[in-house]
Amino acid sequence: MEPAVISNIEFNFDPAATPIWPVRSADLAAWQAAHPGPMSAWCDSNDFTAVAGKFIRLPGDDGTLAGVLLGMGEGGDKAADYWAFGSLANALPPGLYRIEGDLSSAAQSDLADHAALAWAQAAYRFTRYHSNDDAPSGDGSDDSDKVARLCLPENTAAAALQGAIKGSFLARDLINTPASDMGPEELADAAVALADEFGAKANVIVGDDLLAENYPAIHAVGRASTRAPRLIDLRWGEGDAPRLTLVGKGVCFDTGGLDLKSAAGMLKMKKDMGGAATVLGLAAMIMAAKLPVALRVLIPAVENSVAGNAFRPGDVLATRKGLTVEVGNTDAEGRIVLCDALAEADSDDPALIIDVATLTGAARVALGQDVPAIFTGSDDLAADLMRLGETLDDPSWRLPLYAPYKERLNSKVADLNNVSDGPMAGAITAALFMQAFVSQPDRWLHMDSYGWNDRDRPGRPAGGDGLAMRALFALVKERFA
Ligand code: BES
Ligand code: MN
Ligand code: ZN
After folding, report:
1. Angle at CA 8, nearest 5°, toward 6 and 11?
2. pLDDT tens digits for 425-439?
3. Do residues 86 and 9 touch, judged by C-beta distance below 8 A?
4. Cα angle at 19 between 15 and 22, to 5 degrees?
5. Among 98, 249, 296, 335, which one carries the catalytic annotation?
6. Would the pLDDT of 208 be above 60?
């Protein structure tokens, strides 16, 4: 049960470390008055005005680095303003730093926590395929002489930060690893390794055993790949604690199947196991924090491939729940594999089911890449998650399970079609399809996520990311701890 070693954070506070002062534009004059001499003069000669995200290195009497001013502009009162610490982590010279000043005082410790998170996340690098890379690895190896390190006050919630970083780096690594090295088997191996690390039980049902164990829909989607489909099932925690079941879409590569995607549409589809990566990262956070839940994680892991034995448009599939599904489009494969996993999740009546899936392009059209869409029958769940997302700058936004659209999934030959008969509300109709496989929608939260950052931002490099993982963790903690 090792906590994550974070390569650029020190949990021993050193008052001799170089101070970093976050300052608002309006407070800059007062700060300068309190720090007369070379530091203040240097601000003036560089026209530093504390614009948000801008920073300046300050000289001491002997010209060496004595401190850093980080501009907060008009802000400084919310987590989002503190991502800039991620830029500092990568821009400042190697050495030991600490956060100073009003904005990071004890009263503002949530903000200081976010600054530390941004700093720690900035150390992430995906270096697996770099034959020669001197960059800090972010994997816990000792790079301490090469990087800017942040030391944190004793009252910092070290375990929480370590859990968040472990979960986040795990999700990023899993998503960034190309499908050639992250197929259903490798995804299962990663899940089992996580289970082993935290003393969880793991069970994996592989290939034709899925048919014997009544997971026909997972098998149908995954059977065309040379890499056998499987259902990953982890269990952790006390049996009498409230049951929380996480379900993650583990499509290790999505060609679209016989309804083949375009080149542009297929390009990033190694990330189609982003839901699985997110729930594994979330599970790592939950287990690291020893939250009082009986945790179960279910991941249907498949590759949606093209071959002679691929499932076809027009096929009627059996599902675990017993509902039959007409395949309107083989590219709507996520909801098909998830419906068997959801039916199983539902079978032992958990207090809460959370599923995360890179399910639809439509969710991205509605909300863009940063804001996962959420769906639930519970107004409280939705409101709580959106509130926590706002506080932690880890957003998501609710879309409705609008019942009248259910008829768009009607089929003449089966109980339902896997796609809507029209072009609109694709994220909602996908969610309504999923809802057909859970018995209590008010104990279910579905998240349709992009699983990816399209551009580099401080602490959030372009590439795979377990979006909303911290907000989901906070939700679970608030409900069950
Ligand atoms: N994995 C995709 C959804 C996706 C695409 C997520 C791009 C993020 C970025 C999913 O399997 C899919 O192909 N969905 C189709 C559904 C359609 C056929 C009803 C889509 O959204 O186009
Ligand atoms: Mn697809
Ligand atoms: Zn997909």
Report:
1. 70
2. 999 999 999 999 999
3. no
4. 135
5. 335
6. yes
